[in-house]
Amino acid sequence: MTETNRPAIDGLEIDAPHRDLLDQVLDKWPLQVLDRLCEQPSRFNELRRAIPAVTQKSLTATLRRLERNCVVDRVITSSRPIAVEYRITSLGKTLRGPIDELLQWTAMHMPDVERARAKFDDEA
Amino acid sequence: MTETNRPAIDGLEIDAPHRDLLDQVLDKWPLQVLDRLCEQPSRFNELRRAIPAVTQKSLTATLRRLERNCVVDRVITSSRPIAVEYRITSLGKTLRGPIDELLQWTAMHMPDVERARAKFDDEA
DNA sequence: CGGGATCCCAAGCGATACTG
DNA sequence: CAGTATCGCTTGGGATCCCG
Q: Among A88, A93, A121, B70, which residue is least crowded by beta carbons within 10 Å?
């Protein structure tokens, strides 16, 4: 520890970049934003209303990250008063399949999981 | 099928339980643990060695959560000295498909994303 | 061997206020 | 309208020590 305070990161996890990308795309807010934008382009405040639990700070951060990863497009549609529209990109659309399969998995197996949880919690 | 409409339940998100389940299964450590256990049953310390970056605490917590959700099975194979083996369950195996598709997505589009990121960071 | 119990810090998030 | 800035708290995680 006479070293830096940087945590010792070693080489081979599932692959850091991949993990990182999944985090930025599948997290709580990103997932919901993508879900919404897949259905329709939306303005900032429309997204806030569509996802009531998100704060402006988190939404902004989420959108920036998604834009950075090129799954969402930020389009200024008017300058005064400023209007911004967020749209899913073609790359973003390719996420639909994987995400939907994931959601279908949870939908299909949620009962099993909840039963398992109840049992686990009960035994403990 | 494309009845895109989310029920737009009052104040509810993409569905908290689903989100929650995804979190517990797709997070950094769970993903790597599942990945490993899909290939072979493993003991606790084998997992630590297979995933060098994980701490004992995180690994324990991860395994407990996976066990609680019934995607991983905890099997005591010896009592003295105690030996525990973790195995993927049948439910856990059904996660392979969705997860693999996700990883294939990242693998396929990582170049695009990295280019986009570089461009984004450069412009900023 | 497979953990449980602590301490502790930094990152993240919510809440709030302000701006072009 | 669509953000930026700041602050304070919560908490997840690493590090460490110990036990059956």
A: A121
Which pLDDT belongs to residue A13?
Answer: 57
Number of domains present in the structure of chain A: 1
Q: Is the residue at B50 inside a domain? A: yes
Name residues 81-100 of chain A with a Cβ under 7 Å from nucleic strand C: 81-82
CATH number at residue B79: 1.10.10.10
- For A13-55, the pLDDT digits (tens) are 578 889 999 999 999 999 999 999 999 999 999 999 999 999 9
DSSP for B2-40, written as a single string = --------TT--S-HHHHHHHHHHHSHHHHHHHHHHHH-
User: Does residue B61 lie within any of the structural domains?
Assistant: yes
Collapsed DSSP state (helix, strand, coil) of residue A64:
helix
| Pick among A20, A21, A51, A104 to test the B interface (most B CBs inside 10 A) | A21
pLDDT per residue over A86-107, tens digit each?
A: 999 999 999 999 999 999 999 9
Q: Which domain holds residue A56?
A: 16-93
B118 touches chain A (CB under 8 A): no
Which pLDDT belongs to residue A124?
75
- Residue B12 has what pLDDT? 45
DSSP state of B71: S
> Is residue A98 less than 8 Å (CB to CB) from chain B?
yes
